[in-house]
User: What shape does this take?
Amino acid sequence: MVVDTVIWNPSDSIIDLGFFAVRYYSLFFLLAFVSSYIVVKKQFEKHGIDVALMDSLTVYVVLGTLTGARLGHCLFYDFAYYSKHPLEIILPFTFTPEFKITGFQGLASHGGGIGIMVSLVLFCRKFKLKLWFMLDQIALVVPLAGTFIRLGNLMNSEIIGKPSDVSWAFIFLKDDTIPRHPAQLYEAIAYLLIFTFVYMMVKKYPRASGFYFGMVIFLIFCFRLGIEFIKEDQSAFEAGLLLNMGQILSIPFILTGILIMYLKGGAQQETAVKVARQ
Assistant: This one.
């Protein structure tokens, strides 16, 4: 029996003028990048890297994240629709059933992860930094950014959990009146804990470049694999599958994380200059 529930029905916009809206999701997305910028900047200063590179790094990572996350959603979760409306992949509005400014709704974290890695490869080639070192720096803040992104999902009442009778269940009135797991909140808390744990480990136990990158993707996607069991499917085609798309996509990341930690686990951290520069 449900002892208590949270009735959840916030507006998804802070400001809505009809033709223009500032959404909570956009605000949390901005907070994700600002907080990540601050942490990575401190890491740059610690390793003696020119902080001026942060502006270029931000551009690369933002573009890589948005491009990868958007393409990931369109290709992995809603290919049937976007294959018929390809312009809506890159435009922040829909044409059917009526013209409407929507923003870029529909972003996939797995695609975002791939986009970040591609952008870092390009960044490191241009500025002659070691890729493994940069992967560690960005991986450190990925769970922190993920915390804000999932809070944005919570404000949008999206990525909801399955029906539940737990005392802290949420009723997402935008969907129905059924008490459900607040899966977005679970993920936000988990990602914040992962960030805190890895950040403390980085400070106390230096490792060879790449080790903490492997640890982060292992922890994040292990949790993602488990949390999907109590989340509603994101697309209709996932119904009846043993594992949904989020879980299927998580498995290669988990295996990659294990392999990287194994390969990098025995080596000690190099000097800052050797780590940073090629």
